[in-house]
Amino acid sequence: MLQTEQLTINIGPQHPSAHGGLHVEAVLDGEVVVDAIPHVGYVHRSVEKIAESRTYAQFVPYTARLDYLGTHLPVIGYVQAVEKLAGIEVPERAEYIRVIMGELSRIASHQLFIGSLAIDLGATTGLLYCMRDRERIMDMFEMTSGQRLLAAYMRIGGIAEDLPPEFLPAVRSFVRDIPKMIKEYQGLLYGNEIFQARLKGIGKLSAQDAIAYGVTGPNLRACGVSYDIRKAEPYGIYDRFDFEIPVGSNGDAWDRLMVRNEEIIQSGRIIEQALDQLPEGEIRAKVPRVFKPEKGKSVYHRIEGAKGELGYYIVSDGGEKPYRLHVRAPSFVNLMALPLVSRGGLVQDIIVNIATLDPVLGEADR
User: Domains (ranges, CATH) in the chain?
Assistant: First the structure.
């Protein structure tokens, strides 16, 4: 028998397909993957420790820098956790605007997922189409907050400013165009037999393994598990909206793509309903400039982020700053399944698996 030696190669941390500062130690037998060990920490910024030296309000902009591709979602999760800790009631109008901005962020994240997956597989035009469509969302963020990528528009008790007059027509126009966008992605990418061959049956994850590893979000739903925090444990006003939970059946790279593709459509449905129900009124509750939640009180609040369950655990010591703050980052947890889905595949499949697990390293490292 021919004896072969295992070879270890490094993918990242300086590599365009590593989706940030990710280093994967790939152990290969020829082109077959024996193991794929992720090494994180290259983007570590001590965000949780910084929270202890900032007031609750001062920490808001830092949260936008966690999942910066779906920027409003981590901010919404944080301000809702603080509101739960301090017993703050949010005005109705602010709740609806938060839903609109959060779902726009989810769409923006999924569009970049599709585009980056396309270019990882060599389909440059796919990235250009998705970035073109995503740019319209960035324009809407700029209208409301003056910021495009890191739009820390949420505030404890509501939002920073009311919507400008040009915002609502822009959102309605964008939502109307979602079916046309999806049709273009299907014609350009999903129907391509090379694209399908690179994804179907690749990086399979079973529902049992996904649950055991704590995988959440679209990666879990691709395994056939119909679990979405917006439905299972509604926060804010999500119980007022009618939408479906897309699920896959094989748990492979193709299903992870298809689930996110369908989620774009469902987010569009939620936004349409929120626009139709949007009430007039106050946008922010009256919150003291510096407030001190009750000593010894703690809270864990979780939301359905673009990448999965995004949770904040906050402990108060009665001061104006959090005593402790921990972020349950879905990118970090989901990334731990990379060795499991990569073993037995080919080295080229590691790139597909990284792309379809969709980690953002700013969130994984914090």
Answer: 7-360 (1.10.645.10)
